[in-house]
Amino acid sequence: MKKKILIFIITYKALHRLLDVYNSIPFKKLKKYKINVLISDDKSDDDTIKYARKIYSKNKNIKLNYNKKNRGYGGNIKICLNYALMKKFDYAIMIHGDNQYNPKYIPIMIKMFEKDKLTQAVTGSRLLKSLRNTTKGGMPIYKLIGNIILTKFQNLLLRTNFTDAHTGFWAYRINNFKDKFYLLTTDGFNFDQQLRFQYIYKKQKILEIPIDTRYADERSQLHIQYAIRFFFETIIFFLIKIKIINFKTIKYSSK
């Protein structure tokens, strides 16, 4: 029986880049799986949805979701994960509509799940190859330095060994979400960080694979507000880990 895989593309003001993302999905290498694509737009006020409809018109196996109100980065991902859980997919892969993460790595991510049944998530690391790779791919120096410092801080405090704690390229084993614990996370930009905390909390395995870095004019950023939240939430999770705070009593901001 073929494994069911959902590739979901989250968009916000992605415009023509959405077409590039979709056209880069290596469907030919995924023939042995049952592939479905979900494009979920977070109430873009530009022509992004027109490009999404252009893709849909050529392939009716694609599902379109247009949020009537802006749900936030994390809120949009939750909608997609809810759909994957409801439709009983085996794995789901998240791609950003800004074309920063190359879909060519999807077959490798799936292979990681099949090689190791204990792996619950696979992430693409921009720093697993070399620092030269990131600057060559256009990552601004201040983002590179911020990524390194905050990732090392998290590793030190939580005794983990991740190389890129700020990636937005994730693949998930969906049956892991049956407890719907992920709904406790923020609807804002720190969703990936908080979800990573949950994996760590449940002592579940996250694998990293090396990916190329691609920066152009996309809006994906490691900005000051995100960095401050990352710093303080890492401390909060450390207190949870040593059982000073209960995880389920934490109420995160929706932004």
What tags apply to this protein structure?
alpha/beta, 255 residues, globular, 38% helix, Spore Coat Polysaccharide Biosynthesis Protein SpsA, Chain A, seven-stranded mixed beta sheet
Describe this entry's structure for a reader.
The structure is a single chain. Helix 7 (191-201) runs parallel beside helix 8. Strands 3-2-1-4-6-5-7 form a 7-stranded mixed sheet, with helices on both faces. It has helices at residues 17-23, 48-58, 72-86, 106-115, 131-136, 141-158, 191-201, 224-241; strands at residues 4-11, 34-41, 62-66, 91-96, 119-125, 170-173, 205-210. It has 255 residues and is an alpha/beta fold. Helix 1 links the parallel strand 1 and strand 2. The protein has one domain (4-249): Spore Coat Polysaccharide Biosynthesis Protein SpsA, Chain A.
